[in-house]
Write a structure and sequence with these properties.
mainly alpha; 2 domains; 129 residues; single chain; two-stranded antiparallel sheet
Protein backbone atom coordinates (compact mmCIF):
# COMPACT_ATOMS: atom_id res chain seq x y z
CA UNK A 1 0.00 0.00 0.00
CA UNK A 2 1.24 3.46 -0.88
CA UNK A 3 1.02 6.43 1.47
CA UNK A 4 0.43 9.84 -0.05
CA UNK A 5 4.11 10.53 0.65
CA UNK A 6 5.03 7.43 -1.36
CA UNK A 7 2.88 8.70 -4.23
CA UNK A 8 4.58 12.09 -4.12
CA UNK A 9 8.04 10.51 -4.02
CA UNK A 10 7.30 8.16 -6.92
CA UNK A 11 5.98 11.01 -9.06
CA UNK A 12 9.00 13.16 -8.18
CA UNK A 13 11.34 10.36 -9.24
CA UNK A 14 9.39 9.84 -12.48
CA UNK A 15 9.40 13.50 -13.47
CA UNK A 16 12.91 14.45 -12.41
CA UNK A 17 14.91 11.27 -12.95
CA UNK A 18 13.13 9.14 -15.56
CA UNK A 19 11.75 11.96 -17.67
CA UNK A 20 14.58 14.37 -16.73
CA UNK A 21 12.03 17.14 -16.69
CA UNK A 22 10.57 19.73 -14.33
CA UNK A 23 7.16 20.34 -12.85
CA UNK A 24 4.71 22.57 -14.63
CA UNK A 25 3.94 25.90 -13.05
CA UNK A 26 1.26 25.74 -10.33
CA UNK A 27 -1.23 27.60 -12.51
CA UNK A 28 -0.72 25.19 -15.42
CA UNK A 29 -1.03 22.25 -13.02
CA UNK A 30 -4.27 23.70 -11.65
CA UNK A 31 -5.64 24.02 -15.18
CA UNK A 32 -4.65 20.40 -15.84
CA UNK A 33 -6.28 19.30 -12.57
CA UNK A 34 -9.46 21.09 -13.61
CA UNK A 35 -9.41 19.27 -16.96
CA UNK A 36 -9.03 15.91 -15.23
CA UNK A 37 -11.88 16.65 -12.80
CA UNK A 38 -14.02 17.49 -15.83
CA UNK A 39 -13.14 14.14 -17.39
CA UNK A 40 -14.13 12.39 -14.15
CA UNK A 41 -17.39 14.32 -14.08
CA UNK A 42 -18.10 13.23 -17.64
CA UNK A 43 -17.50 9.55 -16.81
CA UNK A 44 -19.65 9.73 -13.69
CA UNK A 45 -22.39 11.45 -15.65
CA UNK A 46 -22.25 8.74 -18.30
CA UNK A 47 -22.25 5.95 -15.72
CA UNK A 48 -24.71 7.31 -13.16
CA UNK A 49 -26.34 10.36 -14.69
CA UNK A 50 -28.92 10.98 -17.33
CA UNK A 51 -26.52 11.59 -20.21
CA UNK A 52 -25.57 8.41 -22.05
CA UNK A 53 -22.42 8.27 -24.14
CA UNK A 54 -22.62 8.69 -27.87
CA UNK A 55 -22.28 5.48 -29.84
CA UNK A 56 -19.03 6.81 -31.28
CA UNK A 57 -17.44 7.35 -27.85
CA UNK A 58 -15.22 4.70 -26.34
CA UNK A 59 -15.66 3.24 -22.91
CA UNK A 60 -14.27 5.34 -20.09
CA UNK A 61 -13.02 4.36 -16.68
CA UNK A 62 -13.83 6.23 -13.47
CA UNK A 63 -10.86 4.68 -11.63
CA UNK A 64 -8.45 5.84 -14.34
CA UNK A 65 -9.80 9.38 -14.15
CA UNK A 66 -9.40 9.35 -10.35
CA UNK A 67 -5.83 8.10 -10.83
CA UNK A 68 -5.15 10.98 -13.22
CA UNK A 69 -6.47 13.43 -10.62
CA UNK A 70 -4.26 11.91 -7.92
CA UNK A 71 -1.21 12.14 -10.20
CA UNK A 72 -1.80 15.80 -11.04
CA UNK A 73 -2.69 16.70 -7.44
CA UNK A 74 0.49 15.05 -6.15
CA UNK A 75 2.51 16.79 -8.86
CA UNK A 76 1.00 20.13 -7.84
CA UNK A 77 1.74 19.38 -4.19
CA UNK A 78 5.36 18.54 -5.05
CA UNK A 79 5.82 21.72 -7.07
CA UNK A 80 4.42 23.89 -4.26
CA UNK A 81 6.09 22.09 -1.35
CA UNK A 82 2.91 20.63 0.17
CA UNK A 83 3.21 17.40 2.16
CA UNK A 84 -0.01 15.55 1.30
CA UNK A 85 0.30 13.25 4.33
CA UNK A 86 0.37 16.27 6.64
CA UNK A 87 -2.39 18.00 4.66
CA UNK A 88 -4.61 14.92 4.89
CA UNK A 89 -3.96 14.47 8.61
CA UNK A 90 -4.84 18.12 9.19
CA UNK A 91 -8.05 18.00 7.19
CA UNK A 92 -9.20 14.80 8.91
CA UNK A 93 -8.64 16.45 12.29
CA UNK A 94 -10.64 19.46 11.10
CA UNK A 95 -13.54 17.32 9.87
CA UNK A 96 -13.59 15.18 13.01
CA UNK A 97 -13.72 18.24 15.25
CA UNK A 98 -16.07 20.35 13.14
CA UNK A 99 -18.50 17.67 12.05
CA UNK A 100 -18.70 15.45 15.13
CA UNK A 101 -22.42 16.12 15.61
CA UNK A 102 -23.25 16.92 12.00
CA UNK A 103 -24.61 13.52 11.04
CA UNK A 104 -26.60 12.97 14.20
CA UNK A 105 -30.11 13.95 15.15
CA UNK A 106 -30.74 14.46 18.86
CA UNK A 107 -27.57 12.50 19.62
CA UNK A 108 -28.67 9.50 17.54
CA UNK A 109 -26.70 8.78 14.36
CA UNK A 110 -28.83 9.14 11.25
CA UNK A 111 -29.18 6.23 8.87
CA UNK A 112 -29.54 6.84 5.15
CA UNK A 113 -33.28 6.15 5.15
CA UNK A 114 -33.83 8.90 7.72
CA UNK A 115 -31.96 11.61 5.80
CA UNK A 116 -34.68 12.47 3.24
CA UNK A 117 -37.28 12.63 6.01
CA UNK A 118 -35.04 14.86 8.16
CA UNK A 119 -34.19 17.13 5.23
CA UNK A 120 -37.90 17.52 4.42
CA UNK A 121 -38.70 18.19 8.10
CA UNK A 122 -35.89 20.77 8.40
CA UNK A 123 -37.02 22.49 5.18
CA UNK A 124 -40.62 22.67 6.41
CA UNK A 125 -39.44 24.10 9.73
CA UNK A 126 -37.42 26.83 8.01
CA UNK A 127 -40.32 27.69 5.69
CA UNK A 128 -42.68 28.05 8.66
CA UNK A 129 -40.30 30.43 10.46
Amino acid sequence: MHTLGDVQQEIDQLIKEEWQSNYWSPLSSLARLTEEVGELAREINHSYGEKPKKASEGAGDIATEMGDILFILASLANSTGVDLNAAFTGVMTKYRQRDTQRWESDGIPLVEEELPRKITHDKQQSENN
